Amino acid sequence: MKAKLAIAAFLVLGAVAVRYVYVLGYPPFKSQFVQTCENAIKQRLAASSTYQRIGVEESRRILTFEEFFADPMRAVSESSRKAMIQIARVPPVQYVALIDYQAQSFVGAIIRERATCTFNSLEGDDDAPTRTYWVMIDGEYNMAWAARQPNAAGLQLRLFKD
Known about the structure:
Number of strands: 5
């Protein structure tokens, strides 16, 4: 009898703990996409070691081929487009992650931000980016963002390493 009560209590506490983790936005396992997005965000921070995720919401939606090829990183010739469309197994997908985080600014102040990270895929669920080069943060790839910064040359060298 006591064993049954102990098991029931353990299961209830476990369920509460898991629910609490998800409500706070800290799922126990981060997807590859979210990990890559977080790395891209950290590359933009003055003190990347101070990055702390507060919450994350992931979603995905089906794209049209026109939307997929509108992305400057996916610009190809018309003949290449037609070939890619013919061999596509699934329609294009856009992954989106809304990431709330805090970190220190270059003056040491704690900032709280929300970043929107997107990635367009022709492979559907089988295609999560591992390199930050392929994800957009707030509508801009890191290389384009770095080019606008006062210390652009140093930032671009750092981004090329990753």
